[in-house]
Specification:
Layout lengths: L2 E4 L5 E9 L3 E9 L4 E9 H9 L3 E3 L5
Antiparallel strand pairs: 1-2, 1-5, 2-3, 3-4
Length: about 60
């Protein structure tokens, strides 16, 4: 699974690709708050993901050793 962090947000948010489909992706959007986190699953078109990556709105999370 690929995970992306959201730039420009006041809270920590991430987008995780759950499944690749013909026209886009099923993703899980996670928002972390002080006391809790919220998660929701949505469909994201490929063009939207490409645009978010191109503008650095989403940045792929990398593993650090």
């Amino acid at each position: 699974m690929r995970e992306f962090l959201v730039n420009g947000s006041n809270t920590k948010e991430s987008v995780t690709i759950l499944e690749e489909l013909k026209d886009g992706y099923n993703v899980k959007i996670t928002r972390y708050r002080d006391d809790w986190k919220t998660e929701r699953e949505e469909f994201m078109p490929k063009q939207l993901l490409d645009s978010c990556l191109r503008t650095n709105y989403l940045v792929e999370k990398t593993l650090t050793a």
